[in-house]
Design brief:
Elements lengths: L4 H7 L8 E4 L5 E3 H17 L7 E5 L4 H12 L3 E4 L6 H11 L3 E4 L4 H11 L3 E4 L7 H7 L15 E7 L7 E6 H14 L7 E4 L6 H14 L2 E4 L5 H7 L5 E4 L1 H8 L14 E4 L6 H11 L4 E6 L3 E5 L19 E5 L12 E6 L11 H7 L6 E9 L5 E6 L4 E3 L2 E3 L1 H10 L3 E11 L3 E10 L7 H9 L10 E4 L13 H7 L5
Helix pairs in contact: 2-3, 2-6, 4-5, 7-8, 10-11
Length: 503
């Protein structure tokens, strides 16, 4: 049987294709028929631009219904979708484009001239635009094409997406997600979280990220449900939409902000059946306050770019704070020591994952891929964990110095490299410290050279010109020297303790 990720998802669309797939805050509704027809138009437009099965399409656009339909058009045409955070700056984009060599790039209209120039020096690609209002040159091209583009069959191990994630060298790595990676994870989560065609998901997440696109949108489409599609998390819009929703997915920051006002209470969410939290650790006080206010226990789960979702607290059963639940039904997890020896229940080590959700490797990095996998197929996540007697996974730390701020992954080395280049800087260390809103905030600890008068504000403003805003340090602190162990390695744990209460 010839099939693909797109064909499998479309086969799940409701019999009544006029059913609402998504609704925007201003009340505009788009049906499953619209999704099917516009995916065909976008697929045809991409094909006309020279994109063929297996080619990459890089997309850096604002969240909109058209952006979702463009994604569907990509996988309909057998293309490899490459979503890019809208906050990425020119230097970052140049790296992604040179590395992935997309045939087509779709960007925000206001950045098209900039993207044209970046593409000119990095990759031979056709550049289109797509705005938050759904208008742009890709929409114009799609409007000229028909609605009968035949879906391109794909093997289960054909690529569906490349997702860039932080690397230990400071350079992001492209995680290759296959057709089966994305399909299996969506299908499993629909069952695990009880999604049905009667659900309405409140969608306030970005869709350049695994959480918002492959988890949230796939769960809706695979179950034939509907969603209220907000451009971003806006507290007033979320409060207004909650009475009509049944499920919400969010990062802990969302729930902290909802709890900040007295208008968020049990009566407001009486129609809700499930709140899911992920992409960053959930604080115990948030978990407790949320239950006290609403009667709902937040369902925390665990995933990462390379594996989608791997564990989840149960829909029916105990949702235990400080845990991310047991492994998904089709996923295996274990905890190992540094040599890969499996540890006993309750022992702390590195979490490893195996299953149909686990990515195919890093784009053009075969050696790095081999380093991250055991010979028996388990992926080494780098997260420090233990598994208790119930099979629940407890994440107790991160082996890699990753910072997760507001649900976004940030690798300190990338920021440190740029700070260290600045005149007057001897060295720097970038860490994440607790923050009441973002979970963690980026902080830079800097040692200056000699008589340098460089200020924290100057460092912050410089980094703003190079990197996405979520990577920019919230504060800069100056010290005479960085703490080091006997091997000369900077002791970031000491710095995290020292600056843990700055927010």
């Amino acid at each position: 049987m010839t099939t693909s990720l797109f064909m499998r998802i479309r086969d799940c669309f409701p019999a009544d294709m006029n059913k609402t797939l998504l609704e925007t805050p201003d009340g505009v509704r788009f049906s499953y028929r619209d999704a099917n027809e516009w995916s065909s138009r976008y697929a045809a437009a991409l094909y006309a631009a020279g994109a063929r099965k297996g080619d990459r399409v890089a997309v850096q656009v604002d969240k909109s219904p058209s952006a979702l339909f463009l994604y569907l058009g990509c996988i309909r045409a057998g293309l490899v979708y490459l979503p890019l955070n809208t906050a990425y700056q020119a230097q970052e984009l140049a790296y992604f484009l040179e590395d992935a060599s997309p045939v087509v790039i779709v960007c925000q209209p206001e950045r098209k001239a900039e993207m044209d120039e970046i593409a000119r020096v990095t990759v031979a690609a056709t550049v289109f635009s797509l705005g938050a209002d759904g208008q742009g040159t890709i929409k114009d091209a799609a409007s000229r094409d028909g609605t009968d583009f035949a879906p391109v069959p794909c093997a289960d191990d054909d690529l569906a997406a490349i997702l860039y994630t932080s690397g230990t060298t400071g350079k992001p790595k492209g995680a290759m997600m296959t057709q089966m990676n994305l399909w299996s994870n969506g299908r499993t989560l629909v069952d695990l979280w009880g999604f049905t065609s009667g659900d309405t998901l409140l969608h306030a997440l970005p869709i350049f990220h695994t959480h918002g696109l492959f988890i949230a949108c796939h769960c809706v489409m695979i179950s034939g449900a509907s969603m209220i599609f907000l451009p971003k998390f806006d507290r007033e819009q979320v409060i207004a939409a909650l009475p009509r929703a049944t499920v919400m997915m969010g990062v802990p920051t969302f729930y902290v902000r909802l709890l900040a006002g007295k208008d968020f209470d049990a009566a407001l969410v009486s129609n809700m059946r499930l709140f899911i939290s992920g992409s960053a650790p959930l604080l115990p006080e948030t978990f407790a306050n949320f239950h006290a206010r609403t009667g709902h226990y937040l369902l925390e789960r665990y995933g990462m770019t390379e594996i989608g979702m791997a564990t989840s607290n149960p829909l029916d059963g105990d949702r235990i704070i400080h845990t991310v639940g047991p492994a998904l039904p089709d996923v295996e997890v274990r905890v190992c020591d540094d040599q890969g020896q499996v540890l006993a229940q309750g022992e702390v080590g590195v979490l490893e994952v195996r299953g149909p959700n686990v990515f195919a490797g890093y784009w053009k990095m075969p050696e790095k891929t081999r380093e991250e996998f055991r010979k028996d197929g388990f992926f080494i996540t780098g997260d420090i964990a233990l598994i208790d007697d119930k099979g629940y996974v407890h994440i107790v730390g991160r082996a890699k110095d990753l910072v997760i701020s507001g649900g976004f992954n940030i690798y300190p080395k990338e920021i440190e490299t740029e700070i260290d280049k600045m005149a007057g800087v001897l060295e720097s260390a970038v860490i994440g410290v607790p923050h009441p809103d973002f979970g963690e905030a980026v902080v830079a600890i800097v040692v200056l050279q000699g008589e340098s008068t460089l200020t924290g504000e100057e460092i912050i403003n410089y980094i703003k010109t190079l990197m996405a805003n979520f990577k920019v340090p919230k504060q800069v602190f100056f010290v005479d020297e960085l703490p080091r162990n006997a091997m000369g390695k900077v002791q970031k744990n000491v710095l995290r303790d020292q600056f843990s209460t700055v927010f």
